[in-house]
Design brief:
This protein is α/β, with parallel strands linked by helices. The protein folds into two domains: 156 residues, no CATH class; 168 residues, P-loop containing nucleotide triphosphate hydrolases (Rossmann fold, 3-Layer(aba) Sandwich). 46% of the residues lie in helices and 14% in strands. Strand 1 and strand 2 form a beta hairpin.
Length: 344
């Protein structure tokens, strides 16, 4: 949708809104969070207070005309998860005044041609005063608060594809979760995000590439065998399944050797991230599994940006090996949830 359509959709959703509510909508669409974010404990306290008093609102996820969405408290995330996503979103880069003023011009045009039922003269005065004041943050009108009981936080739209996963984690509290999927689909990024939200351990399959003596022709021609899943099971998954600390050794691709072991204290929530994490010998350890995918064009574009010198190697070798593994063992079908990150 374009800005005009977003504005009209707001009016259709909230037919009793006032001009200041549309001003707030445009401000949030441009700048995201309109309040200074202090420490997380304060943010959590305020969200908890709203949880305790919230009333039903129209939407769970409300898209704004920009990089943000309004995530209403009725969506079902925990206070901790919502507050963390809100804080992470408040750290996003801000857009400029010009974008806001372009949106305001469209709003005035809709008022001028009587598509919106506001006085053009009065609206122009209000918007000019807003500009003279430097476009401060806007509150919802009393009418809007009374009619619609808004209770939401702004989060960046890049987090939306993962909201169902966050809700599952908040509800079920899994112990070990697998993230498998296509290269460049965002597995590492999701692992980092989950660690930020849940303070969990993240173990990477990339630390368990085959050692030189394991790279036999027979093994490399077998689906899913170009990773040391045997060592990963022994050093990581078996200890985790027993709620024990993990002592494992990373494989260093630069030196083609195994590094000294490191100790990772046990945590109640653990992420296994990377291609081949859903190997048939490993699946029994997981409480939940995620498959990340993306379209071919987006995959190539991301790989090109990541490391253009390695693009051909991925196209000719690594992607075919992954696809062979996915197809041979129906990995996508065996995962509990599929997330397409093409537009994330």
């Amino acid at each position: 949708m374009n800005t005009k359509e977003y504005i009209l959709d707001q009016f259709k959703t909230y037919p009793h809104l006032e001009l200041e509510d549309l001003m707030k909508f445009l401000y949030q669409s441009t700048f995201g969070c309109e309040h200074l974010v202090s420490d997380q404990d304060t943010v959590k306290k305020h969200i908890q207070q709203e949880f305790d008093t919230q009333m039903d609102s129209c939407n769970s996820i409300e898209y704004l005309d920009g990089d943000y969405v309004r995530l209403h408290l009725n969506y079902g995330l925990s206070v901790n998860t919502l507050s963390t996503l809100f804080i992470l979103s408040s750290q996003q880069e801000k857009n400029g005044i010009k974008q806001l003023e372009d949106k305001i011009q469209i709003l005035l045009e809709l008022i001028s041609n009587h598509t919106l039922p506001f006085s053009l003269e009065e609206s122009t005065k209000i918007l000019l005063k807003w500009k003279e004041e430097g476009y401060p943050a806007i509150h919802h009108s009393n009418t809007f608060n009374q009619m619609y009981h808004p209770s939401y936080r702004l989060i960046h739209k890049k987090y939306v594809p993962f909201l169902e996963l966050f809700k599952y984690i908040d509800d079920k509290h899994p112990s070990i979760l697998s993230i498998d999927g296509r290269c460049a689909s965002g597995k590492t990024t999701l692992g980092i995000l989950l660690k930020q939200v849940y303070d969990c351990n993240v173990f990477k399959m990339d630390d368990f590439f085959l050692q030189p003596h394991q790279r036999t022709k027979e093994r490399l021609e077998s689906p899913g065998e170009n990773v040391d899943h045997e060592r990963f099971e022994q050093e990581v998954l078996i200890p985790l399944s027993k709620h024990e600390d993990v002592k494992f050794r990373k494989f260093n691709c630069s030196t083609m050797s195994i590094e000294p072991s490191i100790l990772i204290p046990y945590k109640p929530f653990n992420i296994i991230e990377g291609s081949y994490s859903m190997h048939s010998n490993l699946q029994k350890y997981y409480d939940f599994s995620v498959f990340l995918t993306l379209n071919k064009e987006e995959q190539i574009e991301r790989l090109k940006k990541r490391n253009p010198n390695m693009l051909n190697n991925f196209i000719q070798r690594w992607i075919p090996l992954e696809e062979l593994y996915f197809n041979a063992f129906s990995i996508q079908d065996k995962c509990n949830i599929l997330i397409d990150t093409s537009k994330a």
